[in-house]
Amino acid sequence: MSQNLLITRTRLVAAMLAAAGFTTACYVVPVDPRTGQPVQTQSQAAPAAAVAAPVTFPSRLYPANDLAGRYGMINATVTNDLHGRGTFNAVINGEAFAGEATRKAGSSREGIANGAGNRGSYLSCVYTLNSATQGVGQCKLSDGAVFTMHLGN
Question: Partners of 100 in the beta sheet?
Fold first, then answer.
């Protein structure tokens, strides 16, 4: 084989490899011949999977004994992260309570919410959801005040 033939073949193989490399990134988009616009395929039209966002339940704590009566009605929130737990927040007599809300083991409706106050008090609640958005329960403050809890709107 002559030197020129070998160089020509090498160049031909290199050109073919280069052409193959350039065309591997091509993508064919179907075009509607009537409008000249790209046709939207099902894979292009499929919406992205929705990510479930946490759900916040407004809660009201109503006095259930004389000790709680001095505080009046309390607004609180229970935020469900949709994985069996969440957060719990309330403000009682200027003390901010923050903590967790967790479903009881084996139950999709019953839960426990506890919060520690920034002045050393604590609040413990148990509740039952009557529906996906409403429920009732009872809360006890560390000073003995007892509240009836209403979850949801």
Answer: 87, 114
